[in-house]
Amino acid sequence: MNPTIELLKSHRSIRRFTDQQIPRELLLELIRAGQAAATSSHVQAYSVIHVRNPANREKIAELAGGQGYVASCADFLVFCADMKRPTEASERTGANVVRGMTEQLLVASVDTALMAQNVAIAAESAGLGICYIGGIRNNPHAISDLLHLPEHVYPVFGMCLGYPAVDPDIKPRLPVEAILKEDAYTEDSEQVAAFDEAMHTYYGERRGGNKDADWSRNLTPLFDSKLRAHMRDFLVERGFEMK
């Protein structure tokens, strides 16, 4: 064990922040740390929108499903998968660029997630709290219009940043035996059943909580309907044709 591993294992989503502002230079260092993440073929297929306008923050909070902490956190970032920059750079060399490939969507999305997670870890190492906001994909057209996102760029998720005003419990994770499989995929229903019991206990005992739920039941809203069915058409419209 070392401090880095301990930091990674101590992650909690923070949704209440103090009024303390994040120094500009620290914010820039977080972005630089994000840029140090692994990137496919050095493409760096991401852009980050720092949303400072209070009215826009309020609008995004509404569009993301009424998540008020988008407006109340010290800083709010929108991480965008960006194939505009690298394809245009290649085009300027005289290349006959092919756009809209499924692999380009995957590369840009993975690059963006890796970059954002570096930002999150760097932020937590500096005493900040973070919360990812996938809810911006509830209304990706409106978010894109609000942030003037061009074709071949799409908003993947947002991130709230600030100094924590709360100290929530660490939420349990699946047992490593369910995740780490040796040589081939193996079934993990026993580990999932045990994890459901652990999560039921967690929800019943956590501070301020009396939730009667477990991991499997919490997944139901994600899979018993067509969640964000608009995303495929939206991505195609943005130039990610998935050819």
TrEMBL record:
NCBIfam families, per the entry: PRK10765.1
- Which gene name belongs to this protein? nfsA
High-level lineage: Bacteria, Pseudomonadati, Pseudomonadota, Gammaproteobacteria, Oceanospirillales
Query: What's the family?
Result: Belongs to the flavin oxidoreductase frp family.
Q: Which UniProt keywords apply?
A: Flavoprotein, FMN, NADP, Oxidoreductase
Q: Does the keyword Phosphoprotein apply?
A: no
PANTHER family from the entry? OXYGEN-INSENSITIVE NADPH NITROREDUCTASE (PTHR43425)
- This one is known as Oxygen-insensitive NADPH nitroreductase
Q: In what residue span(s) does the Nitroreductase domain sit?
A: 9-163
Q: Which Gene3D superfamilies does this UniProt record tie to the protein?
A: NADH Oxidase (3.40.109.10)
Gene source species: Halomonas kalidii
Superkingdom is Bacteria
**InterPro entries, per database record:** Flavin_OxRdtase_Frp, Nitroreductase, Nitroreductase-like
